[in-house]
Queue: 3 jobs
Job 1
Amino acid sequence: MNRLDVDALLDDPATRVLVCCGSGGVGKTTTAAALAVRAAERGRHAVVLTIDPARRLAQSLGLRELDNQPREVRVEGFQPKGGLHAMMLDMRRTFDDMVWAHAGRERAEQILANPFYQTISTSFSGTQEYMAMEKLGQLVGRDEWDLVVVDTPPSRSALDFLDAPQRLSTVLDGKLIRMLSAPARAGGRGIRKIVGAGFGLFTKAVSTIVGGQLLQDASTFVQALDSMFGGFRQRAQATYDLLRSPGTGFLVVAAAEPDALREASYFVERLSAEDMPLTGLVANRTHPVLAPLAASGAQAAADRLERSGDAPLAAAVLRVHADRVAVADREKRLLARFTRAHPGVPLVGVPALPVDVHDLDGLREIGRRLAGE
Amino acid sequence: MNGWTDELSRARLHVVTGKGGTGKTTVAAALALALATGGRRVLLVEVENRQGIARLFDRPPLPYAEERIASAPGGGEVRALAVDPEAALLEYLDMFYNLGFAGRTLRRMGAIEFATTLAPGLRDVLLTGKVKECVRRVRPTGRHEYDAVVLDAPPTGRVVRFLDVTRAMAELAKAGPIRGQSEGVVKLLHSGDTAVHLVALLEEMPVRETLDAVAELDAADLRPGAVFVNRVNPPRLPERSLVAAAQGRVDAERVRAGLASAGLEVDDDAVEGLVDQAVEHAMRVRAEQRAKELLAEADLPSLELPELTDGVDVAALYELAEVLVGRGVR
């Protein structure tokens, strides 16, 4: 197995952006925070962008409110050789800021008041991903840090992080909205011809369902954005370029469970198809066996002890061991299957902590485990 | 409260939600099998385009059709349906506008995705609308098509928004075919025919999220059903050693002596390793106990399901279903 050397990665000045991705519930946010803490203590000037962190994890970084700005981490007992800033993403505010930055005051107010903008900026499933990318671009652009560690939104699939911005820009940039809101205008005619009468029916159906007002709002919004940004698609493209540039690395975080590893596999294949730099796989929360004792022997001995009733503590310790061997064997099997399919991907197993991480010491401990200490 | 209740047995729509990674789909499938036990017909529905059910039952991806996926003990039957919002929208449009061939072209152009993006609530209305249709469908004999419908719903963070059709409808036009449908959905979801079950693990975060979800469901006037506590490990250490062990105090000499009396001679490192494992185990069990106390605040019927070391395959689903039947699910 090709082992991922986390310290070498963090110490390399050429590492500028680390993206932690993976399906929901695998510990991405904690991993991102632990990497940033370790990097700072090893001398990097790092900033970590977290998305929807658990409250106590946020507090462990000294983050108390969602203010969408990086704040220096000042926590007792934390005196890193380098430096550490941390922030939580506020997607609504990031979107608002983008509008303020690119539109004149009057225009911006119009956009912000548009009901369709309010829907898109809070409930569309791709907005969080899009804004995470936008914020990442801003942090890199500020040139204040030599390492940016990003967490990705808790979507059901790791691929959403790559796909959602494109989906959003397709929706906002697309010709459809223009045709639906003003079908008579030029540009729509070509497609109308192909689809024929069905399109008229569809427009009618859509406006019956969502209402003509909403279509109108959407159209106004898209036209305003269009003139403002020169198209969402270009903006998404710029972020893609950043992700593909040297200095960016993707760390895929997965639990040693079939579903999470399957997602990780999809993601690894996708990154390679997109020419995006895969740094390695973090197999999170593993349960390595700590005593070299066969499970069968342990079970048999526990049976004997339980029958005699002499040494309940030793019997229990042996049962714990047998359970642990069974779990470890399964994890090893699953990871071996992943490695067979992706032999070139460096991998590091991070042994599970028995309790939740909620302070700096916990993050340091995860960091040590990531580094294989 | 422990075990299933009569009130839950009267529900016809069982919505299953939980924090990501808690095993929501597994529990939904086991619940469907348990409900089908004894000769009933149950439909298991998924709505997030994940094909999680097909994967669980080791089958090719499900089409947009109700297919028999498993038989249950006692002549029961589970069918499965993966609801696709695009297909559901076309189904509606077809009913009212006869789109025919044009529908397919629109789909290729992404027009449907576009419409559901314009009004995100539309997607949820379409999905819950299809579920309602399955719950209410009646055979020519006058009996319901399904004795129960189990819905593998979105995770806790999104489930209330998903089920809050009233809110979604505010986004939609004030009249029209979907509007009419939605009123029936609202009625079903807020009636005694529906129970929203939560899947939790005995860890702090999933438990807190479960409690938050219960409060949110109450606030939205949706009825929380049972809490399924998934992946419960058996506590191995004797209760009296547990607290000390969780603080790192395990008598290594006693362990060594005990091992020796069972004929196991091990070196110091191995004893240390065994002790460390026991300490970690004790810490986890204590954390689980605290999580359980916290979970009791929800004051809902709770059902525990064991951790399956070998992972979840079809045989394991039957095993879990049997556990549920043993806890009174019917």
Job 2
Amino acid sequence: MEALNVEEGKNSELAATNSLQLIAFSLGEQTYSVEITTVREIRAWNGATPLPNTKEYVRGVINLRGTIVPIFDLRARFGGGKTSPTKTHVVIVMSVGEKWVGILVDAVSDILTIKKDDIHPVPESNSSSDVELLRGIITHNEKMVGLIDLQAVIEGAKLDS
Amino acid sequence: MSDLDEFKATYFDECSELLIDLEEQFTAIEEGDKSPERMNAIFRAIHSIKGGAGAFGFEALVDFTHEFETLLDYVRNGQIEFSDDVIKLCIRSNDLVADFVEAARTGEELDADYGAEEKAQFVALCKASSANVNNNKGEEDEEPIDEFDIDFTPVSVDLDKNEEEEAGKENNDSEEEIEGWLVIFKPFRDLYVSANDPLLLLRELSQLGKVEIRAILGEIPTLRDFEPFSVYCTWEIKIKNNSVTKEDILEIFEFVDNDCELKISPLQQEETLANKDNSDVNAQKEAANKSEESEESEESEENIPSLAELAAEIKPKPKVKEKGEEDKNKAPSINKESSTAANPTAKKPSTKPPATSMQSIRVDLEKVDRVVNMVGELVITQSMLTQQMDDYLRHQYQELVRGLEVLATTTRGLQDSVMAIRAQPVKSVFSRMPRLVRELAAKTGKKIKLDMSGENTEIDKTVIEQLSDPLTHMIRNSADHGIEPVEVRIKNGKPETGTIKLSAEQAGGSILIIIEDDGAGINREKVLKLAREKGIVGEDQQLSDDQIDNLIFAPGFSTVEEVSDLSGRGVGMDVVLSNINKIGGSVIVKSSPGKGTRMTLRLPLTLAVLDVMLVRVAGSPYVIPLSSIVETMQCERVDFGQLPTGAKLLQVRGEYVQSIDLASYFGMESDVKESERFVVLCEAEGSNKLALIVDAIIGQQQVVIKSLEENFERIDGIAGGTILGDGSVGLIVDIQGLKNSMSNQRNAAA
């Protein structure tokens, strides 16, 4: 994994102000992010055991040092079709409440430090899933970065029987 | 958790063990074994419960156990005949003790007069007995006079009580013949190491009567040399209660016997040890009072030897004062009396727990589980290493091969040993049942006997914990619905007393627990009618006898029209089934009308490791529990029949078995030709067979069960996950779940 260093100055600034640190990652052309405090581990894609009777975006489960962790294909979750993962694809393992889950993304790109006020609400769009799956939008380097709502992403993964 | 809470938790752990032991002893006594060892064991157990309760201030429990203990002591000494009535009283009281302990644990308030009736009976019995003794006193001088014990009521004493006030009282009391006891308690430095706390001991002492406690602080070193985990204090405790015997005091210190120097001497004269360190002003004042008093009687006498000894022990210069002649003359006779009173117990060294009992340590279950888990991982790593060995390596590195073989044996041995740690005899659950049956018999007015066997069969602790509720429900059910009332039994030519048999045995990789009664059996007509009324069974659905019997496990089913206190809330048996299923077990009911019902629980030996067959379905690894596999076959060698709906039936030795193509059931596609696939014939509960079609059979291995729900959610048809030799995740096929979902589908279609 590439080293993800954070400048010292930013760190101290973080403590003082009302700011947030995010891990940004790419999914095709688009950049998304999650809060850094929820991230537990970043690892290369190394296959997963498919879970039956689950929705398409549940890629399966992996063994993370003895515990079984489900992996969600974020592209598929956003309706962009299943990812065909290679060794360069990345799984970000995060904790959501009590649970640990992984999301499959193309690559991790950056660490962003933003102010909480910089998070804009998601405008009402024609697709309700945009609003449901994102907590907000941030502008970084004049590009739009979506902040993922993890709880929403992992909900309802089971197929209705 | 504070220290005290921790102690409390330990105490309650101990209590539940003691209660189990008590139950066992009483059962043996009920069966006619009235040997002194049993009595002593009971006495010790009750005493330990009382002791701890005193330390934590559970007044009601102390009160009750104290009276109970007194009675037991009389019985033990042969002053009260251990008649059937007394045995019954004792057994009932034992149940009450359990209630008191439970109330203390949960902090619930019991009625103030709870157990009062029994307590009154104790006192009455003891009174009668001692009256008896007193009548004989003239003739038999050697008869011990234990009267003091009866008057004893535990007094809770505030340890911080103003000592001056007490000093005042003492002066008034000084007319008394005997004041009590002087205890010098000098713990060794490492008292805390053996988890003893002087405070608890002192608190318990204070239960004996008025106490005056003084700490002698002379040995406390300077801060530099002070070790926080050492005890530097010596305590001088005066117990001002003339009915306390030396044994009472010794019993309190029983557990610190080897960790302290203890001197107990009668306090018939005013004794005080001067303390050099001036630590206790009050005590000094008091001493001054007393020396004034003693000056009145000028006569100076020799020190009592034991006191001189102890005074030398403690260094400060003794200042012994004597009271008037009169007192002195009286003292010896009192001394004699109290020592004779103490004798009967003193003669029995068995009051001390025998050192022969099995040595054990108390370990947090979580710690054991951690070891179990790690051993599980070790087994996996070992099997992974073994899998990596190919023929080339085998030839090239024979030492390595040998090493791996040893590793395999050792890890297997390690695993077995760790599992043995978790294993516990089912006794801990079984022992609660006699009480239950007694209560049930009392409530229903039926006569019921409980026969237990195989209590020493060992099962994994987790299974045992989950077993208590189902077992309780099933026994209730047997007593409530199974066993008939006495009149009915007599009419039907059965013995008056109904029998419930509870047994446990190991059968291969499972444990069988069988609950059998000789009652009326299941009323199939009524059950079916009710099931139809409640819509559990369709109007024209025909069921076999076995199927009807098993309806009692259907959710929301209860055959008793009136909801009774015992069973019949309609949540009983289906809860049993779901609880048992949860721990990977199954229940089968067999009933013969008029003769009785037999329920068989089949439980896994352990929950932690599973012997499985590793198979491949659509490129993914799945594991099937070996315990449910009957046989495996190649697809091309078996015959399939097809139903109109397209469902396949496997024909095996003239039997048609429902088959499931796992790949398509799991919504995946198989990449293996039909003829090259395999059939795994499995057996779900109640001998229901199910044929699974898989792509390949890879092998057999032991796996550690991991939860899917921990980070995800339950998936139908999957019982959990496991880590395979190559580090990937394998999914455990839930045979019963598959079977259920198949019949659900069928029901939904119909």
Job 3
Amino acid sequence: MRRVFQIAAAVCSALAAEPPLVIQNAQVLTVTKGSFRGSVVIRNGKIAEAGEKTLVPLGAHVIDAGGQYLMPGIVDCHSHIAADSINEGSVSVSSMVSIEDVLDPEDIAIYRALAGGVTTANILHGSANAIGGQCVVIKLRWGKDARGLLFAGAKPGLKLALGENPKRQGYAPAQGRSPRYPATRMGVEDVIRQAFAEAKAYRQAWREYQDKVARGENAIPPRRDLRLEPLVEVLEGKRLVHAHCYRADEILMLLRLAEEIGFRVKTLQHVLEGYKVAKEIAAHGAGASTFSDWWAYKVEAYDAIPYNAALMLRKGVLVSLNSDSAELMRRLNTEAAKTLKYGGLTEEEALSLITINPARQLEIDDRVGSIEPGKDADLVLFDKHPLSSYAKVQKVFIDGELYFDRDRDLSARPEREQRRKALVEREREAEKKQPSRTRDRDTERPQ
Amino acid sequence: MKSATTCLSAWLALAAAALPQTVLIRGATVHTVSGPDIASGSVLIRDGKIAEVGVVVKAPKQARVLEAKGLHLYPGMIDSATDLGLAEITSVRETVDIREIGDFKPQLRTIIAVNSASEHIPVTRANGITSAVVLPEGGIISGQAAVIHLDGWTWEEMAARPSVAMVLQFPVIQQTPAERTGPSERRIPYAEAKKRYEARLRELDDWFERARRYQRARQAPASGLRPDLQLEAMLPVLERKLPVVIHAVREKAIREALAFAERQKIRIILAGARDADKLAAELKAKDVPVILPRVLELPLNEDDPYDRPFTLPAALHKAGVRFAFATYSSSFSRNLPYQAATAVAFGLPYQEALRGLTLYPAEIWGLNELGSVEPGKLANLILADGDLLEVRTQIKHVFVRGKEVDLNNKHTTLYEKYRNRP
Amino acid sequence: MRRKEFPVYRVAKHVTVKVLAGVLWSVPLGAEAPAVYAIRGARVVTGKGPILERATVIVRDGLIADVGAQAAIPADAWVIEAEGLSVYPGLMDALSSLGLPEGSPATQRRPEPPSSAEAERTEDVPVNSAWVRAADLLNPAERRIEAARNIGFTAAATFPMRGILCGQGAVIALAGDRPGEMVIHPSAGLYVTLTTRRGGGFPASLMGAIAYLRQVFLDADHYEQARTIYNRNPAGLKRPEYDRALEALLASPRVLLPASTAVEIARMLRLAAEIRRTPVLYGGHEAWRSAELLRESGVSVIVSLKWPERDRDADPDVEESLRVLEMREKAPATPATLAKAGVRFAFSSAGLTDRRDFVRAVRRALNAGLSEADALRALTLHPAEIYGLSDRLGTVEPGKIANLVVTSGDLFQEQTEIKHVFVDGRKYQPIAISREEGRP
């Protein structure tokens, strides 16, 4: 009975939704529909209207942007924040593990990235193995629980990794460990092909079982295999493949292997030599999510060039820029600006690399990535043009809700610091009063 | 015949490039850094130096005239902490010469390990960085830092100061080993870590004491002293001729480093000091300059304001502490100006940011010939099509010691090559 | 009055100790132990209903025979004059490894490592020892049993604790001559951890451990399904293999899942719903933040009395985060918050064997707003309920197992003495008190 009331209450509150929000007097960079000085009207977490002249709805909450720049929330196609573990590096195929199981909504990196204008991120498994774990798309709803971070409706992903990282356990195993296959790029291909062959056999086993059941035969269902099921989902187009790769040869290998197996690589991640095989990437239809200018940190990154993004884009590849780092994630806007410098992209193209393009790569472009009516009200207000080195994030909205506000952040600092100090002092006082407890001799006991 | 002419002209061009040129840069916005900007000014380069700066400068005969209308002229930037030339591919040990074995190695010289053919050098230079400090990082006393110009056939030619400072990694209390090599290396108790730390600190003081005795013995007549290369290398430090770069990150280490400097009566420059804002007043009082930690960095502690690394330069400036920007890298050295730009976004006056890239490092490192656009200084100059700190700005010309250098590099070459892939 | 009775008793004990070199310390007075007791005139905190002043508790043949002011004292009873004393239900440790000493096969031996071909198959990893049963491995002489009893614990849920699926726990009485005699219930639940494997095997990460659990429980369901189908009509079907680990999973009435922080609590509740098993969460220090979620889920929590403390070995110059500081400060408020929200919780003593430490730990929860009645429940009736044993444990009621604590006063006061502890109707004398007070 109480349940019924709760549901009713939830429905009521949704109907009696919050008053509309209007951000007016902003330099609006829609990314997909040009730029203008005007307003954005937000209703029920969605962009209701965006234009030079919009009517302010009755009872609306109005924010005057004072001529500052409003852009869509930044989408990071490659991040490892907000997770309690990243790599299940023990096996070469770890598709049974999922980042969603270990999301940590209290990772401070979420807030820091939010303060850099990021609103959506693809949280990936690491690159320790040829087939890594399941990835998850989140919104940076700081303060919500793990469930509250999930980007509802976004397709799940699967991480693949090529090149140096997945073969490292083979040629340079960690101390005290035996080598793990594979140790070469040849072996990486083999592991992937093998795993998908297993997945196909698994799918076939289920089909045969279902046929038997349909014919009324006595049959025991196959054992469910959580390692192979994600691969079956890839084969069926229900899960997106994000493949860590560097060198042109391995990129080409994966494209051809995927074509042979029968799936499309959704994104090539890092793809630092993508510019060498841009034509092939475009023909396959894979997206490319790369760094702006990282290079020379390992052999396979020695031919990396800052022109990579622009070159691939010009050759017809869907390109995005990602962070792969909690630090870089705070300034993807200036990372995008580097493509103005290296390769001469237009401002709109540069911004698309961190907004609509990654959204397309994650198949969430109907929801985020640009300022258009009907899309989620994920917006960032910068004090200057976001492609300027001097731009600072002032406010960040997700689903129309204010998640970061620089003024609020600044004014909350003294109190937080005081609270910290008070807690430390209180604890030290308490310790002084109580002598150190007898050490627990029993290590076998629960926490 | 035709090919002979082509050959000749090519040779002439090459020869001209190799010789110090006389160049008049005309009509640029000149950011002198030491003085006011000149809206449409000219700079004359002769014999590798800046000969004249002004609104109107007459072009000498045979001078190459570079029309720079719409361009901005700045002094070349100085990256105050790099491993340029010492590290090619970070993950490949064979290409990395940053950390030597042993705790006290003052005799080591980075300058002789600078690979003048490193791909990092032209890449970095192409974004307007014309000089860099190259620091060693091993042990406690790591060796001697050098200042290089980012042009030259050999390290000898590149050297601006073969030995500019001694580098010291200040000991810290470490409960977990810095580089975890296996599960066997476990956390050690605090008391034990503290004991080890104190021992290292004592060792460090002892080392200086040894050097001092050596110095005295050396001055004494006929002492029969056997030369010691390690201690010998310490003499310029003791004589206060060579400053010591002390790498100290947290408050406690910085505080201890200041005390150490006082105790040993040495000149110091702090590097990597991420807690420098907490000790700004002391740093000012003792006039200790700071090589800024990377501005584009995550905060040190979980509860730090999200922008603490961004506001550190402004905080030090406000307190009157001298500072310079640095990347502590080779592959990211080209992004040096963006460290400064972020500092400007978070409160550092623009002019100060510019100085932190040019004049201040020149002063801190004692490079009187660098850092501003003034007559008599070395012609390390850059011409950009906009504000140097803006990412989108293109660097059009770079002069190192008066010579215009090639802006092509590994990246532009690969770009051109694959852009034209059919 | 009381003093008169004790010295005789104590001398007898000391003689025993000397003769038997302490080995049989936990065996009380051997076979002469009387089977009938009358604890007369005590303040009886029954744990259910009002406190009875000046009541008598009759213990016969290991059970509580009668409780009340009018309870008739049987002629064969040993009478304990308990005027001024208090009788409580015996305490129960909701989560422990009591009786399973380190070095026992339960906690030490592991299955052979799998061959490399098997290593990639999740079900073959040597972190599954679900078939190990605490009840089969009890050692009545295990040293910690007496230590726990001395501070008032009379029963405990005890679990094998190595691996990920560590094994089946048992609820035991904290006294007995033979293992079988001690077992109150042999299936307390499956103890699960999220530890990872060192040395390279799967799972090597938290998400690996979770994925592993998910697969194993699916395997168990499949195992059962396959067996059912096969047994119904084996014709034409390949015989399903017998698997002791899956058998054990299927037989377990509940799973104990680790969850200390709010994030972990939400995470484990989701996992439990997914694997469709009845969970009990243990740890619970940040459950004050999850009270609403826990109430809605109806899941019980075992809160560890070992409150998080500052690592006194940490470098004092390294700043701790507000998050960590707040967790430490607010952990003891968890019980009060859960009580208010109506979430059932029990305490685990978490290895506290010193009475003063134990009382202080409980007092921190009391100071943070927990009522004494709720604290007592968390140490008596609630653990009994969690393990489905409230019909025999947890209160001072006729018919229940005679597990009792007789004290000089309020159980949660430091200066209070534990006078007697009854386990299965047998009386024990805590030695800690005599040692502390330095009496002969």
